[in-house]
From TrEMBL:
<feature type="transmembrane region" description="Helical">
    <location>
        <begin position="287"/>
        <end position="308"/>
    </location>
</feature>
<keyword id="KW-1003">Cell membrane</keyword>
<keyword id="KW-0472">Membrane</keyword>
<feature type="transmembrane region" description="Helical">
    <location>
        <begin position="421"/>
        <end position="445"/>
    </location>
</feature>
<feature type="domain" description="MacB-like periplasmic core">
    <location>
        <begin position="20"/>
        <end position="242"/>
    </location>
</feature>
<keyword id="KW-0812">Transmembrane</keyword>
<dbReference type="InterPro" id="IPR050250">
    <property type="entry name" value="Macrolide_Exporter_MacB"/>
</dbReference>
<dbReference type="GO" id="GO:0022857">
    <property type="term" value="F:transmembrane transporter activity"/>
</dbReference>
<feature type="transmembrane region" description="Helical">
    <location>
        <begin position="670"/>
        <end position="692"/>
    </location>
</feature>
<dbReference type="InterPro" id="IPR025857">
    <property type="entry name" value="MacB_PCD"/>
</dbReference>
<feature type="domain" description="ABC3 transporter permease C-terminal">
    <location>
        <begin position="291"/>
        <end position="404"/>
    </location>
</feature>
<feature type="transmembrane region" description="Helical">
    <location>
        <begin position="720"/>
        <end position="739"/>
    </location>
</feature>
<protein>
    <submittedName>
        <fullName>ABC transporter permease</fullName>
    </submittedName>
</protein>
<feature type="domain" description="MacB-like periplasmic core">
    <location>
        <begin position="432"/>
        <end position="631"/>
    </location>
</feature>
<feature type="transmembrane region" description="Helical">
    <location>
        <begin position="21"/>
        <end position="41"/>
    </location>
</feature>
<dbReference type="InterPro" id="IPR003838">
    <property type="entry name" value="ABC3_permease_C"/>
</dbReference>
<feature type="transmembrane region" description="Helical">
    <location>
        <begin position="329"/>
        <end position="358"/>
    </location>
</feature>
Length: 791
């Protein structure tokens, strides 16, 4: 019997090619979309989950209470890790972590004539004990305890020394200014490590190069701890809460608390609200998990709708088969066999589509995803999906139509009103999801457009970043003078870190008239001459640093937020003390964004230091001359810094990196919204076919009575437009609430305006009309004689 049912099902599918094509394509698209999304979700959930001590690893963060508000930050004090380990017995290991070069830039290493750039961190001696980065050569206990020691990756060892074995004990030139000894080689980091690096240097070197770490009012590095296996997290959290006040005085105007976050959660949960970690990438993981479920559900609903539309045509076949003795069980088996066969074809096509789309999907998500074809769990999930889809899609024709009495079927006495109502509800549900996706896509793209087009306070076009490294440290003045002589280069300056991200903060700022109980956290920057001119910052008052004023080495620039926070009515000429370094305020800069739009602009203080030995050279090029300017900069760097490869970044591209996650989400929303709409249209097409089938004789009678083709098309279309309008009414408030919550994560954001809802609604109605019109016109042009003929 199974063989006979299979043959009959295959014959039915091949006979009705159009119906089968729509069924298979709709479900295949849903399966491929859901599969790609779930691969992405699974990959996100796997980040940082490979550490053997993951249950005991934590990142320390701080909550700052001031001005009646609470702000959270991962930046901590430079000596925090070693002091926590020394004073909290429950902490087994602790390590600080800070970039060796400016964030986003690499350091130059050389062995003889082999010169390459690598990215790395300063870390504590415990770092390799805490995290599961296998050490291939050397002793992880002592590798980073000595001065000028370096641990390198397998890739770096192979690149410079030929093998991991040959690297141990060798020296490697760092930035052409000193030699480091290789004390350990660790395995290349897995792709699921959130912090990628090629080398590690010891924390002792960081402390010796940065005297500011001894001031507990300064923050910048990250701090990680590993608790003992028997330690109670809540107990430790209570002990470290006020830990910094063992080293600094309490100030009621600015209070800092330390807290712990499980390290495995850090990648997905990194956003702060009122000083507490509330979300982050996990919101996108949840969102797209729902999108995957909805897209697959839409596809399954379509599958059922199309199967239903086709099964009504076969009602008389069912009646005849029952009349000649076919059992209900045989009919149920037959319909389920057809559903499972269609589902199997759709599943196969869906897997092929997912495999074909995967390279493109990887390209714009920045991942290296692959179908886990060798995993038994994957195939079990595929089989479960096949069973579920087959059961759902085949349920109506198998269970409902097979139960009809032959006499009712043959007399066309089928009562399908309740079933049709259910299907209309399902179409409303489909288009509700589609309208929500359209609105979400519009809001995301509008916000990204707002970020890209809003003036951030300086001109990021025609601005180039060059890392200060190697001989550029001592040859900076020559570089600046010669570069500015080129007609395509307008000005040159320098800066610790870069204008895109200023992470260093200090609380060691005092001024005349300051409330002794008030402490303000300032973002701080160290720059060279012509800083404001090079960035094209706007001065509200005063002037930029200038060589014409010898005292500028003890002067400061502030932004508007800093002046407002200090309470100055007239700030120019006022004295500010930064860490026992008093100086006059010579200029007030209009506020500009030096972090992402997720964060409000903070108070900023800037001082001059032309001899600062690391960071970024800022070069303003003339519009239209950037290509020639880059060539000139490369020639200069090769002449003044011959042992270091020339590298540069464009400011606008570095700015875009701040919103990489949002851009990926925007692309995913766009494509999956299109797929959801396409799949929903297939469902609407199926319902239109079903309705046209049911109203064939009504259309024939209307045409005999003089109805025009246009009026018949309108008659058949209006019911579907009503369904879409209901979907719009349901979708709009849900989409507004969802996207308003998403926008709440931005300190600077767009407003969700009425026209977005109108545009999404009109798009949905237009798509529905285009989908339905084919079936409506097809039914309207049929000869009434054919419509009214008794079959």
């Amino acid at each position: 019997m199974i063989r006979n049912n299979f043959s009959t099902a295959l014959r039915s599918i091949t006979k009705n090619k159009g119906f089968s094509f729509l069924n298979i394509v709709g479900l295949a698209l849903g399966i491929s979309c859901a599969l790609l999304i779930l691969l992405w979700v699974q990959d996100e959930l796997r980040v940082d989950q490979f550490h053997a001590n993951g249950d005991e690893l934590y990142q320390v963060y701080q909550r700052n209470f001031y001005d009646g508000k609470v702000a959270g930050a991962y930046q901590t004090q430079g000596l925090l890790a070693q002091e926590l380990k020394k004073n909290i017995p429950e902490i087994e290991y602790a390590s600080g972590m800070e970039y060796v070069a400016a964030p986003g830039t690499a350091s130059t290493f050389s062995v003889d004539d082999n010169v390459n750039k690598m990215m790395g961190f300063f870390v504590g001696a415990d770092f390799l004990n805490m995290f599961s980065y296998p050490v291939l050569q050397g002793d992880k206990q002592s590798a980073l305890t000595m001065p000028n020691a370096i641990a390198i990756s397998r890739k770096m060892a192979d690149l410079f020394f030929g093998s991991t074995e040959n690297a141990i004990g060798k020296t490697i030139r760092f930035e052409n200014k000193g030699d480091l000894q290789v004390t350990a080689v660790f395995e290349n980091l897995p792709v699921h490590a959130s912090q990628q690096f090629d080398f590690l240097r010891g924390w002792g070197d960081f402390v010796s190069e940065n005297a500011w770490v001894h001031n507990w009012g300064n923050t910048s590095p990250s701090t990680f701890v590993q608790l003992r296996a028997d330690a109670d997290r809540q107990h430790v959290a209570a002990k470290i809460k006020d830990f910094i006040y063992h080293y600094t005085d309490k100030n009621e105007g600015f209070r800092t608390e330390l807290a712990l976050q499980p390290y495995g959660e850090r990648y997905l949960y990194s956003n702060f609200k009122d000083g507490y970690i509330t979300g982050g990438r996990i919101e996108y993981v949840r969102l797209f998990s729902w999108v995957a479920a909805f897209v697959l559900l839409i596809a399954c609903i379509n599958f059922m709708n199309l199967a239903t539309a086709r099964s009504v045509k076969r009602a008389k076949e069912i009646g005849l088969r029952k009349t000649i003795g076919a059992s209900r069980f045989s009919l149920i088996t037959q319909f389920y066999m057809e559903a499972f066969l269609l589902a199997a074809c759709a599943l196969l096509v869906g897997l092929i589509l997912a495999f074909g789309f995967l390279p493109v999907f990887n390209q714009f998500t920045g991942k290296a995803l692959a179908l886990p074809l060798s995993a038994s769990g994957f195939w079990l999930s595929v089989f479960a999906l096949l069973i579920t889809v087959g059961m759902v899609a085949g349920s109506y024709p198998a269970l409902y139509l097979s139960s009809m009495r032959p006499i009712h079927v043959l007399k066309n006495n089928l009562r399908l009103g309740g079933v049709v109502l259910l299907r209309k509800g399902l179409v409303v549900f489909q288009f509700t999801l589609s309208v929500m996706l359209i609105l979400g896509m519009m809001v995301i793209y509008r916000q990204l457009g707002f970020i890209q087009t809003t003036h951030i306070g300086y001109d990021r076009e025609n601005l180039v970043y060059i890392p200060i490294e190697g001989d550029l440290v001592k040859n900076y003045q020559t570089f600046k003078t010669e570069a500015e002589n080129h007609p395509g280069i307008l000005s040159v300056s320098k800066m610790r870190n870069s204008p895109t991200v200023i992470e260093h903060h200090t609380g060691s700022i005092n001024w005349q008239g300051k409330d002794p109980n008030l402490m303000v956290s300032f973002a701080d920057a160290v720059v060279g001459y012509d800083f404001a001119e090079t960035l094209q910052l706007q001065l509200k008052e005063g002037r930029d640093f200038s060589k014409a004023f010898g005292a500028d080495s003890a002067a400061y620039l502030l932004n508007e937020t800093a002046v407002e926070r200090m309470g100055f009515q007239s700030a120019i000429g006022q004295t500010v003390d930064w860490g026992n370094r008093p100086g006059k305020i010579i200029g007030i800069l209009r506020d500009f964004h030096f972090n992402s739009f997720h964060q409000a602009i903070e108070p900023l203080i800037i001082r001059l230091d032309e001899n600062w030995t690391w960071g970024t050279i800022l070069v303003r090029t003339k519009a239209g001359s950037t290509k020639d300017a880059i060539a000139t900069l490369e020639r200069l760097c090769k002449a003044l810094n011959p042992k270091t490869p020339f590298t540069f970044q464009f400011s606008d591209l570095e700015f875009s990196k701040l919103y990489k996650s949002e851009e990926i989400v925007g692309k995913l929303s766009y494509y999956f919204a299109l797929f959801a709409i396409l799949i929903s249209c297939l469902g609407l097409f199926g319902l239109a076919a079903f309705t046209a089938e049911q109203r064939t004789k009504e259309v024939g009678i209307r045409k005999v009575l003089g109805a025009s083709v246009g009026s018949v098309v309108s008659l058949l279309s209006q019911d579907f437009v009503k369904l879409v309008l209901v979907a719009i009414v349901i979708a709009c408030p849900i989409a507004w609430w969802t996207m308003n919550n998403w926008l709440a994560g931005f300190a600077y954001r767009i407003d969700i305006e009425w026209w977005m809802f109108a545009a999404a609604g009109l798009a949905a109605v237009a798509i529905a009309l285009l989908t339905v019109s084919f079936q409506a016109i097809k039914a309207a042009v049929v000869n009434p004689v054919d419509s009214l003929r008794d079959e």
